[in-house]
Amino acid sequence: MRGTNNSKFSAVVLVRDHFDTLRNFDTKQPRPTDYLVYLGSPVLIAAVTWWFEGRARNIPDVLAAVAIFTGLIFNVFVLLFDLTARATDRLPMHAREIVDQLADELRAKVSYAVFVGILFTTYLGGLVMFADTDKPLDRTLTALIIMVGIHMLLTIFMVLKRVRAMFRALRIDYTERVP
């Protein structure tokens, strides 16, 4: 996507690459409704949870679920790397451009999803270690967990949609020979 960052530890490029994909695939124009749904929905649902004084329980179970999701998303990244490495060299040029663009967008989305998952897992791990999780959390922490969790789920949905589009592009324009 854009240029790289000088620091080996900076995740700014992951975030930038991901948000650069919130565009119309054909026109490359930003889609304001994508931003509104993607960022507004988690905030709105978290605000409703906070307003009605929702309180999260079973944080160790939530931690386990987020860690598993993050691992599964990372496996999609490995699948993506393997699939594009095998397929793009054999594709005709007109199909390669579409598949390369889908692969770039999918890489950006998966990288961002793994990044969010790692941060979320770290945050929840800190809560489990340093807070009394036998009691329900306060409503602010609950709203934050709801917001990040929904944001992560929406990211996963975008990943799944791009995986589907990529497989369709490969299947329509490229038939793998079975040995």
User: What string gives the helices and strands in order?
Assistant: HHHHH
Q: What is the C-alpha radius of gyration, as a whole number of Å?
A: 19 Å
Q: Structural class of the secondary structure composition?
A: mainly alpha
Contiguous uncertain segments of 5+ residues = none
Explain what the structure shows.
With 179 residues, this protein is mostly helical. The chain has one domain. Helix content is 73%, strand content 0%. The protein has five helices and no strands. It is elongated.
Short recap of the structure:
Helices cover 73% and strands 0% of the residues. With 179 residues, it is mostly helical.
Q: What is the topology?
A:
Elements: H1 12-20, H2 32-51, H3 59-87, H4 93-130, H5 139-173
Helix pairs in contact: 1-4, 2-5, 3-4, 3-5, 4-5
Name its key features.
179 residues, mainly alpha, 5 helices, elongated
